[in-house]
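Hi R.,

As promised on Friday, here is the backbone we talked about, encoded as structure tokens. Could you run it through your design pipeline when you get a chance and send me back a sequence?
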């Protein structure tokens, strides 16, 4: 009988992970920093990333290549916007290739990459930088707390 705790729906999982392009360029990693704790299904991980760790146990390591459909999808042209240069701080003009944090109406921030700049506008891409790419997902499971269910009377 297997007495190891496995990752299931709503499990709280402490882990190290990294996301990299197939050429080895790392986009995100926690291996050199503090581990991350997620609750399965809370939206911190893309569904394909969650599917890759279901059933793993503490101490397990896995490296899997996720397709764009499993990771961040494909770039959406509707997320590329032309913004007037007057929207940018005069002392910090946008430059091609730059990633800038933009405030959303709900107060959250989202990164946008400057694709091009001319005399009047900056073309900004708000797609996730990994959209359209196969992503190498590396994970090491450090701890698992099974889902706790509360019964409310």
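Update: got your reply. Pasting your designed sequence below so it's all in one thread:
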């Amino acid at each position: 009988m297997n007495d190891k705790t496995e990752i299931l729906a709503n499990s709280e999982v402490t882990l190290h992970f990294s996301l990299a392009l197939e050429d080895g360029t790392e986009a995100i990693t926690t291996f050199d920093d503090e581990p991350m704790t997620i609750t399965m299904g809370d939206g911190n991980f893309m569904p394909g990333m969650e599917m890759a760790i279901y059933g793993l146990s503490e101490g397990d390591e896995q490296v899997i290549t996720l397709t764009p459909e499993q990771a961040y999808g494909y770039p959406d042209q509707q997320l590329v916007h032309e913004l007037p240069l007057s929207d940018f701080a005069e002392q910090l003009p946008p430059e091609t290739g730059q990633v800038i944090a933009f405030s959303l109406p709900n107060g959250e921030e989202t990164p946008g990459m400057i694709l091009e700049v001319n005399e009047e506008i900056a073309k900004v891409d708000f797609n996730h930088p990994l959209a359209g790419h196969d992503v190498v997902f590396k994970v090491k499971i450090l701890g698992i707390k099974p889902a706790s269910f509360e019964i409310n009377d």
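One thing I noticed while checking it: The mean pLDDT is 92.

Thanks again,
M.
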